[in-house]
Structures are given as C-alpha cells and as structure tokens.
C-alpha cells in the first residue's frame, strides 16, 4: 500500500502539470461564441494571429505564461457558453476570472437585448398533421447554444392549415390570415430569429417560408406569371396584398413583393422590425441550388433550411445573395466607437471590412458598361481572370494515351472556397502607377507582357482562361503575375492599379463555409478518416444517404460560387442603358477585383497541381473546365493514375482525394475513344463529364 508521502507526491506532480486545454475545435467554438476574432485574441495574449489559428487547428500549443492566461480565458468562456447538451456552469468565480482577460471589449460589446417576445405556443412534433413528412427521423445537425430571444430557431415553414414547422421538429400554431397579420405574429409571438454572427453585426431577421397552400390562404397567387425570368417577377403595386402592406405602414424593399420579399419598418432604437418571406411556389428555392427541396414536405423543408441557417446564414434570397450577405455578416462594416467630444458611442469604421460606402474599381477591373469605363472613354483593356475552359489539341495526344480505355474526371471540392483562404485583397481604392516594380504582396491589377513565358503545350497556359499563350501585354491580377515569377521568369509591369490598404477580408467567410461543407459531408458519411477507396465509395452513395442533407450540401456549394460571382454582378433588365449606374453598384461588396483575385488564385492552384502531376506521373490532362480536370486512365478509378508513395500515402503537391475544400473527388468516367471524338469536334470533355456550366454565377 502506498504511503501518505507517496500519495502527496503524486498529487503535487499533478498540480504542477501544465493546464489542460480543451480540444482545438472547442477552443474555436468558445472564441466564436464570445464574438472575439482571432486577431483580437492574439492582441490580448500578445501573440500573432497565426499562432491563434495554429492553437485552434491543433498544429501547436501555447507555452507558459501565455498558456495559463489562455486557459483562464477559455474557462471563463466555457462557463458563459457551455457546449450544446451540457448544463451551464454555476461558478461565478470562473466567469468573473475570465472578464479581465477579455477586457477591451468596451460598452459596445454588451448591447441590451430586446425584450423576448411572447413565444407562440408550440405543439410536440408527434402532434403534427398528416401532411408532415413520413420519412424516418434522420440524424440532426449539431445545434449551437440556444438564444433565449429566439427560442424557436431562425425560421419556419408555414402550411395552409396554419401549422408553422420550425427546426428540430417544433410546430407552431399561426393564426394569421393575411400577410400583415403574419408579419406581426412573426415579430411579436413566434420567437423566431437568429443571433448575429459577429459581435459588431446584426441579428438575422426571422424567415417565413410559404407553401403554395399558405400563399393562397394569405391572398397571394399560387404562381407568379409573366414573360420575365421567374426570379425577376413581382406583384404589381396595385395588388391587394401590396396595398394591405402599405396601408398598415409596412414597407417593401426596392425588389418589391417577389419570391423573396422583405417587409420592414424603420428601426426604432436597437430593435429591428423586419421579416423575410420566401414563397416556394414562386420558385424561391432554385432547383440547381436546392435540388428537390421545393417538392419536400414542410418538415423536411424546415430541416434543410434550418441546418443551412445554423451552419451558414438564414437565407435572405438566392444562394448568391446569401453568400454575399454572409461576407457582410462576418465582416460588419461598422463597430461602436466612442466620440471623444461627447463620450457617446457612435458607429465607426470596422477595420478589415469594406466599409459602408461603395467604391469604384479601376478601369481595367470594371465591366465595359460601367460608368468608370464609359465616362472616361477607357480603351486600355480589361482583366480576364476567369476559370479554365481548355481542351488539349488532338494532335498532341500520344498513341499510348489514345489506347487507354477511360477518361476520368476529377473535380476539386469547392476550389474557389479553398482559394479564398488567407487571400489578401485590397480594402482601399485603387491608385494608378506607371512602371511599378512588381510586388507579389500588393493586391491589384498589373499591365504586363507574359508572352515570353514558356509553357508545355500539353498543359493550359496559367495566364488565360482558354489556356492559350498570351500574345502581348495584358492586365493580370497579382496572383497570376506572381506565378510567372514563381516559374522563374522576369516580369516588368508597364502600369498598375494597386491598393495600399489590404487584408484577408474573406477569411471568416471561408472558415464558416468550410466548416459547414465538411460537417455536412460528414453527416452524409464522408468523413476525413476514410482512406481513398472508402472515400470514393462514400462519395458514390452520399446523395442517397439523406436527400435533405444532400440538398444542404448543394446549397453550400452554390453559396460559394454565387457569392463570389455576385462580387461583379452585371446590370439586369432590358431597360438598362450603357453608362448608367445599376443597383448593385451601390453596395460596398460590388468588388470585381476581389472576384478576380479568388479566380486567379484558383486557376494558378489548378495549374500548379497539373504541373506536379506531370513531374510525379508523366500524365497530361485532356481538358480542364473550371475546377474539373479530365485524365486518360487505364482504369475507371482515379486510384489507377494518382501518385502514391511506397507507403501508400498520396504524394504531396499533386491531386489528392478527400472531403476537404481543394482536394479532389471523382466527377465521372467516360470512354477514352468517346472523349477523343469530342475533342476532334471541338468540345470540352470536362463539360460532358461534369454535366454543367463552370461560370461563376453572378446571381440574382
């Protein structure tokens, strides 16, 4: 039996051990729950933002005394923001000890919450009517800590019998018989809404999704008819429902009463009065972004949109609109600052954001119809940073390649999302320079001649979307020019439109969407711990595992492409005249230079992988369409040609399989002879394997 001295010695050894930190994912959750950015935490702990990122992804651990301070802060946050499913800590001391470490938040960080509305009565899911889904209950997504102001979640799907289906199977009784009554019920009784995603941001307005039966009950037509595109249709201003809304002193946005209608009143104090409506039978949920959702039962629609709202953002329009709104929600344009003269807290610029005012682009970054171009008579050319659409010339195919039986397509998971990670973009307006020295750290547009860069003709040129070799000076984004320098060539810009203030604006947007994408894939059985064979098998059946979660995954992917595309939204409508300013130009997020930076980096990343594949395997692609590349193969699986080390591990630098953004998955398999035949006819085999368009949708 151990003696007392031995026992005390063992206990003292435990006391002297370094503090035990929670898992990396929990550290990130606690910080985000507190509304603190990685940069701000780094400043508080007197370290770098990259160090905080490393702590939160498990790459490194802090050392004392920073370790002790970090432990103290995490303990305080854990008491305030317990993990879902755990009881909140009751220790006041633990909470108090965390407050000094989080000092500097200031009065603006603790706005008074509005009074919680009298929540509408909820009946258990078992009591829902026969119209509810008959599918067996599926695995629910992990839920964040509930906000007492929004006890019933971010949204509800209203059916014709007055049942409003929310997240987690909740069903509310909605007595509204008109749109005005619905808006007032939503704000006063429903308990719907979602807390802000950033401490300086705004809470998400509640979303009510109307089934066809609900729309008719509220006096709306079951379908919107007209010769315009469905998403452009609106109720006429003299429609009875529009008149009711106006008479009740509610307002509609400039978009009017369409598939996505926002009904609001001016803000009084801190309390917003706004409700978002979506009408399913008016094609609010586009089939490409939300496959099959419009035809689902109300409970399943609520589940799909609820998971999307919890992981991404409460939908506010098309996925393109939601992608853009997420950027602003993660980087709010203003924060509370104290007026030195009055001592009052007033809105001020939030560093790292795009601010509140729109910014005109440099002429080569604009579109031909933009006022900057038309008014100045600009004729100096434009950026052409677009995704790849390239096919190898048939004459460059070898006999050996032509005898291979298969053409296999590899598609990179959310390639443009991966390109947005740690992407430094301009935050200020462009300044013009003549003959600047190239600096790969300065975002902007450069006029440079890259026609002297030698590239193997069996690979696409990294400098043009169609893969052809440049023929003279042209405008390029910084990443494109930097890649020419990386290849060992001298670059001598003739002109440049460069930005002095820079930042990784898209980082929090990327992080949230990446987590949503990976978590949703995991719900479908595609996890990071699978080997390559298991991964391919899981991807083959993942869409059938749970149609609802598969729809969420499709919506997340559409949010990425649509959000990036909407950074350069073009004018819409037949009445537009060249040189006029269109509505999208009034947004601070109309930033074609940021869109160009994402696409440039994604295309360079693709070319780097193509080159590494040549070095490791000697294989050249048949075609590249956006983020999909087609290779000739001896078998019907990418395992037949991807490079692996003797240990069986994938070779770094080339294409690798996996669920993480930037890694590849099997997109399709075709007959090699069929693919060659397509190439002889001038078609891109990648387009046929992928079965869709690669253009980044500029959205609604």
Please describe the topology of this protein.
Blueprint (H helix, E strand, L loop, with lengths): L3 H12 L8 H10 L4 H7 L4 H9 L8 H15 L11 H10 L20 E2 L31 E4 L4 E3 L5 E3 L5 H10 L18 E4 L1 H6 L22 H8 L3 E2 L7 E9 L2 E9 L18 H14 L7 H12 L3 E5 L6 E5 L21 H6 L12 E3 L7 H5 L2 E7 L2 H6 L4 E2 L3 E5 L9 E6 L23 E5 H9 L8 E5 L2 E2 L3 H17 L8 H14 L1 H19 L26 H26 L5 E3 L2 E6 L30 E8 H9 L4 H6 L10
Parallel strand pairs: 2-5, 5-8
Antiparallel strand pairs: 1-4, 2-3, 3-4, 6-7, 7-8, 9-10, 11-19, 12-20, 12-21, 13-18, 14-17, 15-16, 15-17, 19-20
Helix pairs in contact: 3-4, 5-6, 10-18, 11-18, 15-19, 16-18, 17-18
Beta-sheet strand percentage? Answer: 5-15%
Summarize the biggest pleated sheet.
Answer: 8 strands, mixed
The percent of residues in helical segments reads 25-40%
Report, as a whole number of angstroms, the end-to-end distance. 76 Å
**How large is the radius of gyration?**
27 Å
The coarse silhouette is: globular
Q: What can you see in these coordinates?
A:
With 700 residues, this protein is an alpha+beta fold. Helix content is 33%, strand content 14%. It has an eight-stranded mixed sheet. The longest helix is centred in the C-terminal third of the chain and has 26 residues, at 592-617.
What is this structure, in a nutshell?
33% of the residues lie in helices and 14% in strands.
Protein traits:
single chain, 700 residues, alpha+beta, eight-stranded mixed β-sheet, five-stranded antiparallel β-sheet, 21 helices, 14% strand, globular
